[in-house]
Amino acid sequence: MTILSPERTPEQIAEEEAGGRMSFFEHLVELRKRIVNSLIGIGIGAAIGILVSKRFINFITEPMQKALIANHLEGNLYYTHPAGYVSLWINLGIYMGVAMAMPWVLYQIWKFVAPGLYQHERGAAASFIISSMFLFLCGISFGYFIMLPQILNFLVGFASGGPIKPLIDIDQYFSLILMILLGLGVIFELPVLIFILSVFGIVTPKFLLKNFRYAMLIITVSAAILTPTPDAQTMLIFMVPMVGLYFIGVIVSYVVVRRKRARALAGGGAN
Questions:
Q1: Can you tell me whether residue 169 is helix, strand or coil?
Q2: Torsion angle, alpha carbons of 146, 147, 150, 153, to 10
Q3: Do residues 173 and 80 touch, judged by C-beta distance below 8 A?
Q4: I need a surface site. Which of 29, 91, 166, 252 has the fewest CB within 10 A?
Q5: Which secondary-structure segment (H or E) carries 116?
Q6: For 94-104, what is the mean pLDDT?
Q7: Exposure b/e, 82-110, CB count within 10 A at least 16 = b
Q8: What is the pLDDT of residues 187-246, one digit of tens each?
């Protein structure tokens, strides 16, 4: 006979047991709803971003100007198409809008994942959103303040002193920093990904530590692809935080697994 815990009502127990029971069609309907809501949020964020993005153009061009001046070159960037500056303004606004809408998008992702979780796990929505945004912003900050100066100084200084001078196109520069900043922002979400996989029992701390050599191979390949310079120093700077994030993920997985086992033992003791 089951003895009910005084902290949980029969309704709460029933809700936990029925937490993840959705048909395949219901999952598709829910997925469509969350995608539509996310797109609406991104659209609103993009409209706001376009309105304010012109004020941030100097901010994104500053690392390139500093690299040019540090190598005794003219610190100007150019656009080669009549609509180049307007295109930069709009594109920057769209990406800023996506960043502003990210908490809403993450909330929609959590609402899609939540039906597959127990009641006590669903209460982590705020922590999930805050942690995801914090790590994403940490990735962008790491890219802007640490990676970009290293990469740009190497690229500009590589031909310094020769007869060939750089003429930096603003569109190509924007594509470069976009790849670096967004790539690092996504990579810094690794602990959140490990958290979700651990909640669903897909990975465990033991599994992560046992397969670290494969993770290291993936990290090395990712660093080689995302780092636009061939020097080992920049690649190592890129790899160090990725390795650190992996071990943070191991700790997160350990905490999740430990809590799940504690709740399982507590549930078994109530029978």
A1: strand
A2: -110
A3: no
A4: 29
A5: none
A6: 90
A7: eeeeeebbebbbbbbbbbbbbbbbbbbbb
A8: 999 999 998 899 888 999 999 999 999 999 999 998 888 787 777 888 888 899 999 999
Residue 185 contacts by C-beta under 8 Å, 6 or more apart in sequence?
136, 137, 139, 140, 143
Angstrom distance (rounded) from CA 114 to CA 116 = 5
Q: Interior CA angle at 81 toward 79 and 87, to 5°?
A: 80
**pLDDT at residue 262 in the model:** 86
Encode burial over 206-215: b for 16+ CB neighbours within 10 A, e otherwise: eebeeeeeeb
d(CA 114, CA 162): 59
The model's pLDDT over 130-147, given as tens digits with 9 standing for 90+, comes to: 888 899 999 999 999 999
Output Rg (C-alpha) for the chain, integer angstroms: 23
Angstrom distance (rounded) from CA 45 to CA 41: 6
Instruction: Supply angle C-alpha 124, 134, 226, rounded to 5.
Output: 120
Alpha helix segments (H runs only) across the chain: 10-17, 24-52, 57-70, 84-113, 119-122, 125-142, 148-157, 170-187, 190-199, 205-210, 212-226, 232-269
Which tokens hold the place of 257? 């697994």
Amino acid at 195: F
Residues 6+ away with beta carbon under 8 Å from 226: 179, 180, 183, 184, 187, 238
**What are the domain boundaries of the chain?**
23-188, 189-271
pTM equals: 0.78
Q: How far apart (Å, rounded) are the C-alpha atoms in residues 54 and 77?
A: 16
Instruction: State both tokens at 20.
Output: 């993840």
Question: Measuring CA to CA, how many Å separate 192 from each of 121, 178, 245?
Answer: 14, 22, 10
